[in-house]
Design a protein that fits this description.
Elements lengths: L1 H28 L3 H31 L12 E7 L4 H13 L4 E8 L4 H10 L5 E6 L5 H12 L5 E5 L4 E2 L3 H6 L7 E10 L6 H22 L11 E5 H12 L2 E2 L2 E2 L4 H11 L3 E12 L5 H23 L2 H4 L1 H31 L1 H19 L1 H6 L4 H24 L10
Helix pairs in contact: 1-2, 1-12, 2-7, 2-12, 3-4, 5-8, 7-15, 8-9, 9-10, 10-12, 10-15, 12-13, 12-15
Amino acid sequence: MQLWREWMLYFGLLLLIGLSILLLGLKVTGVAENIWQSYYSLYIALAVAHLWYVFILLFIGDARAAPHSAYAGERIAVIVPVFNEDAEVVEATARSILAADGVKDIFFVNDGSPDPKLDAALRRLEEHPNVWVGTFEQNHGKRVAIAAAIREFVRDHAYVVLVDSDTLLDKYALVRLVEPLSNPRVGASTGDIRLSNEKQNLLTRMVAAYYWSALNIQRKSQSTFGMVPCCSGALSAYRAELLKSLALDLARQHFLGKACTFADDRHLANLVLRSGHDVVYVGEALAYTRTPATYSTFIRQQLRWKRGFYQEAIVAMSFMWRVKPLLFLDILVWELALPLLSIGLVLLLAIYSIIDPFFLFAGVLPSLLLVLIVRHLPLVFFSPQRLPGLVHYMFFNQFVMCWLGLYAIFTLRNRSWSTR
């Protein structure tokens, strides 16, 4: 039954794409012009409505914000899956976790990495009294590594924190991250991910602006009602008993009939939400990671993320209407319908760049820039130094990312990690 629902929702995405192309054809050929104008008006109305929706959620969240119960010394299990990471990077991650506040045990899982330097570094770390290392002889994937660590290492811990092997934690990241979990209604939390190589080049500045916006606007607004749909793999926390009950589902997930190898962060958030718990965003929990600094590597990473995004959006659509109706509408309108229906608009934009370039550069692009700035007003006020990166993202998103998402939809069953 679950497989049937997944295929049905997947074909629904393809129908949205087909509708977008059909409406483009109506516009270009001049047939049923009024229908296309109605579609365009509806698209703009939905985009503006979602803009107001996000701002209202941000206002409500700020108005009713109350401090969480202070961290009371509960034991934290920090799990770090490792595969083919540079030994020095892993040691830096370990040092940052050890230096962070909180009563913690750190568990590294070497998922079949062949590098002897990495193995030696992990053995050195294991000399610390609060560090343990588990090793797979062969690579089994991040999901299996996480599930195995939960099964083998998590005992009398109150919380489990998942950290990527190339992530550096702020001193207060762990305690700030787990504080919301003192509320039994909250099952998971995720933090603010910054880039340690933000100033490396134009691409990394663009990604930094995208991260800031996605976390401090979109995730923060969703957190108002505990409906954050993704717990970042770089830094996320879970109630230990809840995560134990979900570990097997994480390791054994199949989608469209094939075993899943990525999107573990989104799937864990889906599992927590499906269990009836809230997922929240904690802007005070800071962590620093690196983004690919070349376009080729970045695009491969984003292709994997796009596949994971659509995969878990389909999973969420099958149950979210029951547990988080607002998030169901958010995913349906903002994350699925609008991006896919905009394909026709992007194609039309390409046509106008040929037949009427003056209209494109004098009318359309300035309008898009204005909409982008309004959509990201919090960034303009609170992080203005990232505005140039945001403008770069606007063009990159319109001319690259939307097509990457389209390709991802048609290759959803591809389980390649791409950047490993």
